[in-house]
Design a protein that fits this description.
homodimer; 201 residues; mainly alpha; elongated; DNA-binding
Amino acid sequence: MAIVGDSRTQLVQTMARLLRDQGYTATGLSQVLAESGVSNGSLYHHFPGGMEELAETALEASGKAVTDALTRALDGAPNAGVGVGRFLDMSAELFTDDGCGGCPVAPTALESPLISPRLRVAAARCFHSWEVRIAQRLRADGWPEDSVPEAASAGLALIEGALLVAKVSGQLGHLAHAKRAALVLLATPSGQRARSNDRER
Amino acid sequence: MAIVGDSRTQLVQTMARLLRDQGYTATGLSQVLAESGVSNGSLYHHFPGGMEELAETALEASGKAVTDALTRALDGAPNAGVGVGRFLDMSAELFTDDGCGGCPVAPTALESPLISPRLRVAAARCFHSWEVRIAQRLRADGWPEDSVPEAASAGLALIEGALLVAKVSGQLGHLAHAKRAALVLLATPSGQRARSNDRER
DNA sequence: GCACTACTAGAGAGAGTGCTCTAGCCTTTC
DNA sequence: GAAAGGCTAGAGCACTCTCTCTAGTAGTGC
């Protein structure tokens, strides 16, 4: 026996890439098998639940990879704003000219609500995990506790939105713009907090 | 002859809703026909290009509807930040419990790069149009010209990201959080501009 | 009445889908 | 050597997909 789960790993990695580039429904089983070099029978041996189970596993793997990357970016930065900015820089390097790259969860997440509640939950777990990482760093930066959830949520939205727009438009400048916005929103523990309180309501 | 394009309108509206809720590939032709009450033959009369042409038309219609809503929100607000916030409030009201709602373009946009360049371009046009609207308002607010593209891009990313995360997580609080962030990012013509310049390059 | 156009209805083709199932290989263990 | 089990290969099934094609209806102008 060579490496346990070798073809299984191939399946998960291939599926994760295809989910990122074209989503769940657009990814046919035959495409996964062809690009991973694994046979039909092997797939149903490792994933008795079929395509949906494979997709869920792939989402979890992608989610963990992003969590790790985000953690590294945040840990090495002077504050959460710079950390998120560096994460966006890292993400920019993974884009290709033909529109591949971006968030590995978003395409599947957006089609999941009516298609597969199971995948929707898996995607939501990913987003939550990333948000928690940002929130942890904000607390470490000294942000007041009641401002943390709001700022972390905005940081996550900024990341996801920038990756989405950059992917579709093909213009990576959107990532750089979001980076600057992250610096404004997440860099200072206090400051613009007070200013935002007296606007509209 | 009753109303010209009656069944055509039905097709476009049904397709637009399905694209918003589950994306392009997950939307079968049979589902569009069943839910719109239009026959197969009528579809190919109005849209000789088939499903892809119908989807493109639906995206354009949705894009225009969003542009109009965004314009109304911005026009009635004291500044761009409040306007974007009101747009998010309007968007929140259109969500349903089962995960329907959100950006009508994003799901299709994210699966389009490898599936249909035609739909990708249509989606990119939508995003660009919305970004232009925000930029126009920022200029009217007195923002310096060289700061406008960056701020408009960040505003668009914030909107798209918040709609995405809110849809998948089912928690509309993300929209309220993004609203507050929009106030910080887009409310003041100058101010935090200077502060963001001396952070990490 | 006739011709013409706009539109509709729906059967059916051809290709593709996810998945089941049987047969068999290869390694391990006794 | 033999048995056992993890894993693989691939044929085939039942179903769905988009799209083509023919037949037909309704309204209009002459």
